[in-house]
Each structure stands twice: as structure tokens, then as C-alpha cells.
Amino acid sequence: MGSWTICPILLTREWHRGLQLKRRNNQKIAIVREKLMQQIQEIELISSIIGSAYEAILREDSWMAVLSNLTQLAKADSGSYVLINESAPKIVQSQNLDPSVLESYNKEFAAFDPFHGDIMRHSNKNVVHDRSEVDKDFIQNSVWFQEFYRLHRIHSIIALPLHNETGLAGSFNIQRVAGRDNFSEHEIRLINCLAPHFNRAHQIMGKIKMMRHEVMHEKMALETITTPILLIDEKSNIILASQAAQQIIRREPFLVLEKNRLLAYRNSGSFYFKFSNQPIEKLINRGANRKPLRVISLPLAPDSEFNKAFQRPLCMLILDDPEIIPASLSELLTELFKLTLSEARVCIALGSEGLTPQECSDVFGVSITTIRTQIRSIYGKVGVRRQADLVRLISLLHLTRSKT
Q1: Pair 403, 326: CB distance under 8 Å
Q2: Rounded to an integer, what distance in angstroms lies between the CA atom of residue 81 and that of residue 83?
């Protein structure tokens, strides 16, 4: 029988080839694994940044966490949160930024910042990169570049505009120092994809600030009202209560605030005062030798001073206590519905005396055109559509009672 002889040299070569192939494959796997880990870290950072941005809607100090993670994501050396008003930008928060640089910017060079004007002109841009916005001639003639930029060894800046409904409100700026490369296209793309989230969060934050301002204005207006009233929303939650209403609730043991709603206890049980689309009243018995408390529910007109767009619809609860000297009907109408004195006079004539518009014109000695204009204003402020509805509303407000 014949025999096969395998050459040791051939075996050695095949073994070396196999070993090299395995090493190359391991290297490729290591590179892929490293890139994958880098992408996972970027995704985690982006997720954290977006979360912090939406947290900042209610907690403005969360913008600092956004800035910190944004600086890390773009491998920047420092970052700053800039607010921009009509005159010049101002750094209000910073990350790894030398205090001397911050002070120099705010005191001397903010007005010369060319990217402030460029961002304002290109408010539709998500990212402004200094290296793509200016040329060498501009750099040589710019106070900003020659006296600030180079003095503080800044090499490259990315500005990320933050917009609101009325224009630019601020920006995130991240910087690299001299000796480092420009921001890469990949890093700019990462920041660019975050811009819509920042702008959306900034817009919502602006709207919430506006809503808080409106509520504060509403609360201050309510504090001047002497009539005991509460404002409740569509889910019957109490929005605001006048001082007079709060005093009655504290004084009367059968009235309780529970889960932000007004609860009344009676012999037959308890009930919540609920939102109503129609004017209604409830009588609450307070026992022997005491007159019942009347609670009048009136839906607020869309044009009411208390009916804000973000709270609509609202309903007014009037706690009518006969043991307290009541205001006159004219005072109630001017206080609750912001009618003028002449409008209140016409409203009473229409609602309680049953006069026609022409009769009001004859009685008050004004033109029928003026009366009709006042009637349209009254209907809008009070929230009724016809005279019969006005008569019903006036009847709920104690026509015969007057201040003594």
C-alpha cells in the first residue's frame, strides 16, 4: 500500500495563515465592538440630554445638566448657556468655563459677538458653527476674534439657538480650545438632532411662564373682590378662591376642601360642588335659627377676565350668605363680570325690569345704537345669548337685596 507524506513546511504555513486570519477577525470584531459601545454611550447621553431638557420646563436649573451632557457628547472643552435680550447676549450658566473668560465676555465683548447677530438673522438654523460662518478677512478685522477669541485661546465654537414664539431667547454654546481640531461632521449632526427638542422645551417653558403670570394676575384680581366666589374647572377642581369665600369655608363646619374640591355635608349625606354648563343654585341647611347658605353656580363666558385660554371652561361658585350684608346687584355685576356702570344699569333694566332695548334708550336718554352696543358687550361678558337667559341669571343674584 502507498502512503501520503504531509510536508511540515506546508502545515506550518497553513497554521500561520489561520492564526493571522483569526487575529484580523478579532481586530475587526474589537473595532466593531468599540464603535458599538461608543454609539450606545452616545444614545444614552442623548437620552439623558433630552430628558433634562424637558425637566427644565419646570426646573430651569436642569438646563445646567443639559449643558454638561452636551459638552460631553460633543467632546468640547467648555460650554455656556446664553440668554439674549434686545441689547446683547449674556452668559448666565457655564460648564468648565474660566471665570475670567465669562466676566470678559459679559462686560466687554458680548456686544461684539458676531454669532449673536448671525443667529438672530438665521433663526431657522439648528446649529451655527463658527468655522462655516466666517472667512479669513472677517476674522482679521473682527474685534471679537482678535481681542477675545484668540486671547482666551478659543479655537472653535458651536452655537445652538433656542427659539420661542417671538424670536430668539438664547443659545447653548460649546467651545474647543486652541490645539484641538474643529468639531467633526458627526458631532455637529449629533447636536443638530437635539436642536428640535431644545427649542420645543424652550417654547413650552415660555408658555408655562406666561400661564403662571396670567394666573398670578388673575389671583391678584380675585383678591380685590369682596364677593365670596370660587373658580372651578371642568373637572370641578378649585382654581382660585377669593378671601371672602375662604373665610366662609373656614367658618362653616359643613364645608370642607377635599382633594382640591369643595365638599358639603348635609343630613342626607355629602356631595361635591360640580362644574355646570347652566346657572343653578343649591340651598344648604345650616340648622335651627340660621338661614340656609345659597351656592350659585354660573358658567363663565369665554371673554371673562378669569377664563384663561389654558383653563377653559371655568365655572364660578358664589357663596351667598344671607347673614352677611350683601352687595347691591349693580356692585355684583361690575365686580363679577367687569361690566361698566352704564352696562350694569342696562343689564338690570333688561334682566329685572324687563325693559326692551328701545325702552332702555328712552329711559336712559341714549341712542338705540349705543344700547345695542352695550347689550352685545353685556352678553359677551356675562355669557348669555338672549334676554331670557339674562333674566334667569339676574334672578339668581338676589334682585331684591341691596346693601344697607
Answers
A1: yes
A2: 7
